[in-house]
Design goal:
Layout (H helix, E strand, L loop, with lengths): L2 H14 L6 H17 L4 H17 L8 H16 L5 H13 L4 E6 L6 H14 L4 E6 L6 H11 L3 E3 L7 H15 L3 E6 L7 H14 L3 E7 L4 H13 L4 E5 L8 H10 L3 E5 L7 E2 L2 H8 L4
Parallel strand pairs: 1-4, 1-5, 2-3, 2-4, 5-6, 6-7
Antiparallel strand pairs: 7-8
């Protein structure tokens, strides 16, 4: 997990730990480091931010005579990465669900993202997460587009013990979502999670449909699910989804299978949208609600 970036970090520390480099050496080391980060799919603006925050420390760093330069440098790098990984407190989401409950309505969370990014799997994992915390949840299959999508959510959802509201392929996704909302209201269910079809910037019709869905269901939150394996593309797509539909949070999936780590350290910084969870496997419990801790640990800062 995130081995490439972790290695780039440790070899950077190795290079600069022994003696205080001259300004010229600092620039050489940093430009090398920068190129390695870009090659590992770190977004350009994020690599810039890391390098800029390190430049000052490398030039000005004042380690006591017998001080441990390596430990100080590692701490500086850790602080820099920590400040870039913006996370959301899941309690904020739970509080909103409580407020909705007090108003006598279900909270609604709309999942969006590109094809195959992990939306459907994550919907079921989040339902499980919420149920463990005492909330009742139903799922809406508003992906009426991709062959097999309805059966996939029905299978995964029902196996985990959730009610799945669906219609037929080609049905209006907004109609499915409204149907689910009505059922949730009459059954006094706390949360409705809406699964949608994967889409890209070339699917104009699908993007418009997503906007309509948002207009109709007025979700409490829109969550973008990105695939860590897509690297920088996951970051660019998140920006596109934010422009087109508006997103509140990011969940990055498949972090367990991501050998590089570029998207994981860039996505919240680059999009300005906080990371809510990391998907770290295909089981129901593989949803990590402390993304920053988990990423820093994988990057060797434990
Ligand atoms: N290793 C790993 N695999 C995951 C994770 N999340 C999802 N997957 C797998 O990724 C694949 C795609 O997941 P889906 O949930 O179907 O993705 P989707 O975004 O709903 O896909 P579309 O509906 O086709 O757009 C499936 O094989 C999942 O099991 C994760 O956190 N880790
Ligand atoms: Mg899906």
């Amino acid at each position: 997990m995130l081995k490439t970036v972790a290695k780039i970090f440790s070899s950077f520390i190795e290079t600069v730990k022994t003696a205080k480099p001259s300004p010229k050496e600092v620039e050489n080391v940093l430009s090398d480091f920068y190129l390695q980060l870009i090659a590992a799919d770190v977004a350009v603006e994020t690599a810039d931010a890391i390098v800029n925050s390190l430049r000052h420390s490398l030039l000005e760093m004042d380690v006591p005579r017998f001080g441990d330069r390596e430990a100080v440098l590692k701490e500086v790098l850790k602080k820099s990465i920590e400040s870039l990984i913006k996370v959301a407190d899941v309690n904020h989401v739970l509080k909103r669900v409580d407020e909705a409950r007090k108003q006598g309505r279900p909270a609604v969370i709309l999942f969006v993202g590109p094809n195959g990014s992990g939306k459907t799997t994550t919907v079921v994992k989040l339902a499980h997460y919420l149920r463990k915390r005492g909330y009742s949840v139903i799922l809406a299959s508003a992906d009426t587009f991709r062959a097999g999508a309805i059966e996939q959510l029905e299978t995964l959802g029902q196996r985990a013990g959730f009610m799945v509201v669906s219609q037929s392929y080609g049905a209006d996704p907004a109609a499915v979502a409204v149907d689910a909302l009505n059922k949730a209201s009459s059954m006094r269910v706390n949360v409705v999670l809406i699964d949608t079809a994967g889409r890209t910037e070339v699917d104009r019709g699908l993007l418009e449909e997503m906007r309509k869905l948002k207009r109709v269901v007025k979700p409490d939150f829109v969550i973008y699910t990105g695939d860590a394996l897509a690297g920088n593309a996951a970051v660019q797509q998140a920006k596109m989804f934010d422009e087109v539909v508006g997103i509140d949070y990011v969940i990055l999936s498949k972090v367990d299978a991501d050998a590089k780590g570029g998207s994981a350290i860039s996505i919240s910084h680059s999009t300005g949208k906080p990371l809510l969870f990391l998907g770290v496997g295909q089981e129901l419990d593989d949803l990590e609600d402390k993304p920053a801790e988990k990423l820093l640990e994988a990057l060797g800062f434990a």
